[in-house]
């Protein structure tokens, strides 16, 4: 997967569907905020995930708790907006970091 930083740099890393995106990023040395420790309570690990193969999907389905948190942060979340602590990557994708 390609990780796009806010400064415009891009890094290529490998993801495992058994490991959350936030832990995948941290293991790769990519800094990402995650105040609540992966409980979908704070929203600080917000990212945008865009599948390279739109018909297949590159990540797990969003849970109702994750959807509620994203709506609390932004009344109109962007397409592909996710919480990295709740996201598991299954395929080729681009991940955009917000901050």
Automatic annotation (TrEMBL):
Gene3D superfamilies, A to Z: 3.10.20.30
Top-rank taxon, per record: Bacteria
GO MF annotations, alphabetized: iron-sulfur cluster binding
Chain ranges of the 2Fe-2S ferredoxin-type domain: 1-99
Protein name: (2Fe-2S)-binding protein
The species this protein was found in: Gracilinema caldarium
